[in-house]
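Late entry, evening session. Most of the bench is empty. Finally got around to the prediction I had been postponing all week. Sequence below, unchanged from the version circulated by S.P.
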Amino acid sequence: MPDHHPGHFDVVRQGRVLVLTMNDPATRNALSNGMMARGREALEEAAHDDGIGAVVLTGAGGAFSSGGHLTRLYDHAGKSRSENRDSIERFHGWVRIMRECPKPIVAAVEGPAAGAGFSLALACDLIVAAEDARFLTAYVKVGLNADGGASASLARALPLQLCAELMLDGGPVEPARLHALGVVNRLTAPGQALPEALAWAAKLAEGPSAAMGRAKRLMELAYGNFATQLARESDLFVEALHHPEAKEGITAFFEKRAPKFPGR
């Protein structure tokens, strides 16, 4: 769930590849509403631009994205459920555009891809990750549930027990393990994820764009309705945000202590 931090988003064309860079190193590229709006706008334009054949999504400063700001999440718990839902919808609207974009999207992951940042990487069609990247769902650690389609993406990619491990434990997962499981497509040396992703995207961009767009639609249909799962995630995220567990989990995070969840 993104916050209202302004953030910054770089949009650069390299030949037939559109490079989208989340650029807010001070927060390790935490997701913001402004970032979501700019990313959505860029992808909507790319979808209808015959001069763009592929997209690369990455983060600046050695981090992919640390996800949403917990400070804002804590503040959102005091707002109405409809306000919470509107905020989540800004994120989910961008994720839907990613899934519907007919051009292949390659994530280049260095450093953390945490919480909503992990969801964002999973929403891409392909993932290139450095060997020292850090993937973690993290939500359950503060009494929340996934958003951004992570539950759908992981359930599609993994056996139930492995999906459950990521969703219920919330700890970091080594890129090598995700590569062995097929969630990460390619591993690189530290600092080389972006060059590898750019080279792969450039190759894809020279292929038949219409055919790849149809392939993306077919895969979406074969796996069921991603948008329906986003709606379910939104409902449960709002429910979680107003539950005492989330208040304790987020408070404990800021106080740098282990949470004492109700009933424990």
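Two things to note before I forget:
The first strand starts at residue 9 and ends at 14.
The chain is about 50% helix and 15% strand.
Will write this up properly tomorrow.
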